């Protein structure tokens, strides 16, 4: 019995990348700044002392017009790639902190790297799709001379802007990508705990949904990251940090995370995810003409890979004929019930999905689910009642509608662990469905994976397969991260 906690801990370790900030002593910071440094910064000086002085002033500066050392200082009103000063509740120099738990990625250049903090109170409609814990942004502030004694402060979105024209020449912006990201991660302790609790609780602490971890950009391709069993989007903390550190990738892609409770069967969670993705895309691009919406890349780990695969297959009658004894059209259903069943069994592949990177995915199930340890663990996995309640409701009106193999949909226990058994008919059907033409599949596996065997993690027709010396958390390995970067820089699959 002691093995179960060990297994859960192993999975949790594979899924998490903890990080934190350590504040540099205020006395040490202030000692490095002289009274004349701020004046020199407003004059255009870009040495370290001048930058520190301007950064410290910005942290406490009024957001309107102010007078500093004889200069009138105003903030840019905001625009493409530039934040309005009042967007943030707080600005703080990134240089105030050291990072532990993640590689600290910085870029030298002009301007002062800052962290912009904004409490997510849904002041804008899009904030429904930003992390509820906090909104943080990598900002680079630049002081621009507008007149003899006038200075404009521009708060550049560093993920969108690599360089600017200043003093007649193009110059690279300084940047810190890791401190702002770690600042957000420090607000997510309850989310970290929910990786395990979401499996053993009937109701999740947080509802499933997408989180855009940077400002939406209508020009850059989404990279959609889907976590695995016993996990949360925090699994992608390290990879997100590494993708933002690569100028070729951050100029081409934006990162989205998806959260789902991992106690329900993957195909049930996949239906909810597809609907939420459609809703998000419609919200972001109601006119349907954003370049970003033409193409998506999905990176998925373990059980999340089954959700991801559902975006790129066409099931037709495969699942319906296996589950039901009668056609959909002959069942007594409400409009909403019919629509739910149609999307659950006859869904259409999402044609915008260009590539899917599958990391340690059990396409043919996991023998661990059938072992005594897996059977013991199933006692602790909470069932999502919404799943069975739906089928119980429609079976009352349509007795005899289920094939014998699927009578458990209305009685017995149906969970994510049970659904991962290689003996499950649904796993066999899903495994036989190929990726649709136009969507490329890539496989990354760990040579020391104790949960998913090589025979289960392979994908027929994959464009590439790559093994790293790692366990189930293969995507954390440095070689896997480099492989993901290589795939992201490939031409479109279509």
Decide which structural class fits the backbone.
alpha/beta
* Strand-residue proportion: 15-25%
The residue fraction in helices comes out at 25-40%
Q: Would you tell me the overall average pLDDT?
A: 88
CATH topology of the largest domain: Rossmann fold
Task: Categorize the overall geometry.
Answer: elongated
Treating each run of at least 4 consecutive H or I residues as one helix, how many helices? 19
Quaternary arrangement of the chains shown? single chain
Distance between the termini: 50 Å
Describe the SSE topology.
Elements: H1 3-15, E1 20-23, H2 26-31, H3 37-42, H4 48-60, E2 66-68, E3 71-75, E4 82-83, E5 90-93, E6 97-100, E7 106-107, E8 112-118, E9 135-147, E10 150-157, E11 163-166, E12 169-172, E13 175-176, H5 178-185, H6 189-200, E14 209-212, E15 221-226, H7 237-244, H8 247-250, E16 253-259, H9 266-284, E17 296-301, H10 303-310, H11 318-323, H12 335-345, E18 353-359, H13 367-370, H14 372-377, H15 385-397, H16 416-419, H17 425-432, E19 440-446, H18 454-457, E20 464-468, H19 478-488
Task: List the defining traits of the structure above.
2 domains; disordered N terminus; Rossmann fold; seven-stranded mixed beta sheet; 494 residues; hydrolase activity; 19 helices; alpha/beta
